[in-house]
Amino acid sequence: MVSFARNLLCVTILAVLASTGYAIQCYQCNTFGIPKACKRNASNLIDCSTVKPPVHLSKVGAATGCIKRIQRNPSMPRPETLYSCHFGDVINKQGCQFSEEMKLQQYTALSCDVCTEDKCNGSASLAPIAVAIILFLGVAHLLT
Fold first, then answer.
1. Is the pTM here over 0.85, yes or no?
2. Which residue in 59, 78, 100, 138 could disulfide with 33, CB within 3.0 to 4.6 Å?
């Protein structure tokens, strides 16, 4: 009976941890060349499951992560940073592509980072991962 309860608890914990990836939250903002224009706050945080992909990525489907792209806008004196939801394959960074309109305006990407954890396109934070690891190890210790 104890073995069944232990297995059920482990499966429940794994299911909860696995389900957190389905509705990713990302920061959405554009600095428009002003470095501190996008401060990390709740008003810039969005649920990517409610955001439709851009037209040039409409065949890709739902958001798969968050993106932070530093780009040069020809009409701005400084590079601008775009924070948003990422649509497409996280590995090949398909969502880093510019729309045809932006290509015509001669935008250029200086860097593009894609990540798959909640709020990961803001400043880096390991706190949620650390809490999950400590919780898992604590439960495993109690069950042995």
1. no
2. 78
